[in-house]
């Protein structure tokens, strides 16, 4: 039987070796929830055992059920007629399978019927589901809507909506984008207004809304008359109703199993979620952090599927009387695909752990009895997560596209045909480095933390782990890159040239990624010697990439910006 957890050594390694002790203790209120709820673990061992059992169950559902249905779902997709979206019967079966597995409220508190899992384990589930059917992830991934209501909604809203989400009775959508405002959410124009009795209503349009046919919508709208920037935006909850019209669903390149909708709000009744004027500056930023993790995991799931298809095909396909995986040109590609996949997954779970610790310490500070050290840790993990989540999405989604591309190349002409899954992986991967913030916007989000050296405490911890043998020399190489990065950052900062700073930001973020992933892969190889060859190959490749970027960043070439513009204008 196919099982997407038990057949993945990397996921099992991460669950067994990632340090989740503090994150889980914070999530479970030092395991006091066990006194109130049967679903709550009594200690770390109990929690990890529960995570493993759920992951094995979801892994089986993905391998046995969801994957087999994925090609039909991709071909036929949802149906739209007379303003009504109807999901494919196999998509409905997939959702029912996951609902029966009790993972529809995976991160919601026990109090509301959820199972209170950390982001890290949610990312593992997301990765497996995406490996089976990437479009299905967009439906279960919208649990972020429930998490946002849980964090910022009032008690009445929590009591009303969260049990419904946890039970899989309602689904959600995040209604942000408009026809004239894509990534520039500050320019959102959908109007929120109050009647004489203080009731809120929404009027305007949204576009590219994933699962816009949902029962519950979280909507970014302009609540302050006369405003034109992000400070005039608030977050609202509304429900499907006759006034909320699905005008059409998009005919997309990929992710065919989920409906992407254009919506028209004709004075739709709504409730304010949280405080006025915080919609973009606080609530959407929180939503985006969760979305970065979900899309990173989705991208890695697609990459895993594409790599496995390529490897299987290369083992079976013969050319020149030889299986093509024996040809140097092919096994070189497969090796590079595997290393990229490992690197992206490594960064995903470093980032997810930082998000879990940020969430845990933030909840403790806001709702518990925090110490001065707790407050210090909260501030640190808020900054670290703000650095790592965009770095993670940038790497994971670009890797997904590269691996899917190479998988088709290994298949040759057959990979271009719809009879093979790799063409679907290629189409599905393409959106990952666009939605929830393009790669270019992830660089913008990460570069501040790179320049401020937010990751130095984490690097010191990773450097302090003792390694021996050939790995010690590898670690010295990464440490040398680390010192060079400080030079490069200072060089760009001292230039005091915003255009040069922005142009070099992508290279600096990539260099930062080389260092973090390099340190981590080396330390992981001390726990599993089979991983040493991956660490070695990654670091050797990273040194070459880093040195090339370092040379460009510190070139002191003031003509570089003008040269770029001249090329474009030619």
Structure summary:
With 570 residues, the chain is an alpha+beta fold. Helix content is 60%, strand content 11%.
Q: What keyword list fits this structure?
A:
globular; Butyryl-CoA Dehydrogenase, subunit A, domain 3; 570 residues; Butyryl-CoA Dehydrogenase, subunit A, domain 2; alpha+beta; two-stranded antiparallel sheet; 7-stranded mixed β-sheet; 4 domains; Butyryl-Coa Dehydrogenase, subunit A, domain 1
Report on the structure:
By secondary structure, the chain is of the alpha+beta class. It folds into four domains: 1-151, Butyryl-Coa Dehydrogenase, subunit A, domain 1 (Orthogonal Bundle), CATH 1.10.540; 172-277, Butyryl-CoA Dehydrogenase, subunit A, domain 2 (Beta Barrel), CATH 2.40.110.10; 279-434, Butyryl-CoA Dehydrogenase, subunit A, domain 3; 455-569, Acyl-CoA dehydrogenase, C-terminal domain (Four Helix Bundle (Hemerythrin (Met), subunit A), Up-down Bundle). The chain is 60% helix and 11% strand. It is built from 18 helices and eleven strands. It has helices at 9-17, 21-27, 44-76, 89-100, 119-132, 134-140, 144-152, 155-166, 279-316, 328-367, 372-411, 422-430, 439-451, 456-464, 470-495, 498-527, 532-553, 560-569, and strands spanning 79-81, 84-86, 172-175, 191-194, 200-210, 216-222, 233-239, 244-249, 260-273, 318-319, 322-323. The strands form three sheets. Strands 3, 4, 5, 6, 7, 8 and 9 form a seven-stranded mixed β-sheet that branches. A two-stranded antiparallel sheet has the order 1-2. A hairpin with a 5-residue loop joins strand 4 (191-194) and strand 5 (200-210). Helix 16 (498-527) packs antiparallel against helix 17. The longest helix is centred in the middle third of the chain and has 40 residues, at 328-367. The termini are far apart.
């Amino acid at each position: 039987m196919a099982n997407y957890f038990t057949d993945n050594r990397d996921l099992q390694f991460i669950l067994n070796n990632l340090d989740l002790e503090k994150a889980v203790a914070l999530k479970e209120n030092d395991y006091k929830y066990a006194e109130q709820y049967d679903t709550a673990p009594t200690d770390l061992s109990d929690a990890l055992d529960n995570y493993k059992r759920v992951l094995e169950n979801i892994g089986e559902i993905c391998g046995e059920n969801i994957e087999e249905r994925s090609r039909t779902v991709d071909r036929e997709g949802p149906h739209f007629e007379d303003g009504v979206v109807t999901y494919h019967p196999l998509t409905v079966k997939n959702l029912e399978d996951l609902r029966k597995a009790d993972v529809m409220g995976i991160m919601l508190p026990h109090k509301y019927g959820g199972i209170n899992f950390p982001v890290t384990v949610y990312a593992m589930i997301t990765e497996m589901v995406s490996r089976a059917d990437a479009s299905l992830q967009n439906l279960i991934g919208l649990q972020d809507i429930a998490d946002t209501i849980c964090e910022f909604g009032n008690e009445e809203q929590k009591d009303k909506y969260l049990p419904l989400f946890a039970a899989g009775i309602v689904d959600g959508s995040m209604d942000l984008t408009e026809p004239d405002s894509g990534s520039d959410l500050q320019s959102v124009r959908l109007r929120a207004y109050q009647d004489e009795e203080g009731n809120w209503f929404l009027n305007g349009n949204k576009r590219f809304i994933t699962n816009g046919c949902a029962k519950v919508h979280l909507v970014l709208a302009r609540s302050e008359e006369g405003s034109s920037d992000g400070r005039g935006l608030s977050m609202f909850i509304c429900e499907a109703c006759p006034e909320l019209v699905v005008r059409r669903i998009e005919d997309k390149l990929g992710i065919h199993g989920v409906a992407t909708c254009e919506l028209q709000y004709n004075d739709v009744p709504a409730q304010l979620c949280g405080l006025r004027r915080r919609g973009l500056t606080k609530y959407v930023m929180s939503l985006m952090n969760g979305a970065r993790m979900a899309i990173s995991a989705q991208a890695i799931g697609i990459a895993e599927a594409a790599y496995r298809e390529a490897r299987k095909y290369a083992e079976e396909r013969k050319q020149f009387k030889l299986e093509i995986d024996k040809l140097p040109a092919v096994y070189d590609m497969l090796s590079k695909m595997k290393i990229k996949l490992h690197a992206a997954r490594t960064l995903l779970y470093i980032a997810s752990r930082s998000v879990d610790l940020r969430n845990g310490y933030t909840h403790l500070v806001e709702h518990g009895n925090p110490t001065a050290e707790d407050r210090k840790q909260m501030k640190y993990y808020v900054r670290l997560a703000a650095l790592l989540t965009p770095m993670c999405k940038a790497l994971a989604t670009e890797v997904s596209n590269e691996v899917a591309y190479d998988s088709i190349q290994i298949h040759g002409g057959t990979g271009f045909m719809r009879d093979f899954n790799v063409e679907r992986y290629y189409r599905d991967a393409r959106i990952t480095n666009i939605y929830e913030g393009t790669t270019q916007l992830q660089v913008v989000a990460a570069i501040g933390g790179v320049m401020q050296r937010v990751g130095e405490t984490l690097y010191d911890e990773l450097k302090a782990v003792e390694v021996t043998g050939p790995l010690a020399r590898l670690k010295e190489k990464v440490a040398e890159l680390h010192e060079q990065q400080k030079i490069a950052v200072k060089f760009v900062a001292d230039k005091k040239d915003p255009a040069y700073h922005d142009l070099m930001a992508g290279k600096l973020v990539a260099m930062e990624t080389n260092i973090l992933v390099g340190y981590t892969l080396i330390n992981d190889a001390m726990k599993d010697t089979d991983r040493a060859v991956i660490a070695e190959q990654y670091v050797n490749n990273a040194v070459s990439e880093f040195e090339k970027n370092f040379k460009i960043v510190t070139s002191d070439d003031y003509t570089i910006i003008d040269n770029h513009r001249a090329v474009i204008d030619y």
